[in-house]
Amino acid sequence: MPNRHAAPKAVTCFHKKDTGHRETNFGGLIYSTNAVFLSRSCFTSQVKLNCWKCKKLLDRTPSFFCDSCKSIQPPEEGTSYFKIMDCDYTFTLDTQKLQTRYLQLQRTLHPDNFGQKSVKEQEFSESQSALVSKAYKTLLKPLSRGLYMLKLEGMHLKESTDSVAESQFLLELMEVNEALDEAQTPEEVNKIAQDTKGMLNQRKMKQILAPKD
Fold first, then answer.
1. Measured between alpha carbons, how far is 139 from 11 in angstroms, rounded to an integer?
2. For residue 84, which of 112, 113, 115, 46 has the smallest C-alpha distance?
């Protein structure tokens, strides 16, 4: 949108327990790992934006309203659901906090509040409200949350892998990732690595022994 961008985008990468990249395929399910499931997360710093109406710089990210003229703003492209819902980037997030944030946002962003505003503001309200609802529904349930986190990490599923078994496998991988983040000693990391190696080997054997169509 015109006058929205005031500075070039910069990318900063943060590495978690970086021990070597690997790509694995289990029954059509492709995921990338560092060691076991040590993902390499890249977070893109947000572009500095200006209010579409008064042109003042927006201080917050994401900015739902301009601090200067109080006008509702359009959704910011590429903002993660975790940022929108003000949640920590973790699989075991606080769902009560998530629900509270959802209700707060919808009270201010809902289209019913903009019936007397301009057409543009009504459109922005509808877009923001729909985005908040989508973010809330995605992060609320463990499965959709895990799939979304994998998507953010650059891991993609083929269309043929949307079975219950594959979904359970994804959740197991997310739990491994959380356990590694919480590990305090090398011994704990090694224990998690050994357990996960056994899980992956067991799954690989099931894939080999599974009857072919």
1. 25
2. 46
Token representation of residue 13:
């990468």
Rounded to whole angstroms, the Cα distance separating 120 from 7 reads 24
pTM of the model: 0.62
> What is the rounded average pLDDT of the residues 91-117?
94
CATH number listed for the domain at residues 11-209: 1.10.287.110
CB atoms within 10 A of CB 101: 19
Helix (H), strand (E) at residue 15 = strand 11-15
In the chain, where the domains are located: 11-209
- Which has the minimum average pLDDT: 114-128, 138-152, 194-208? 194-208
For every residue of 83-97, DSSP letters joined together read HHTT--SSTT--HHH
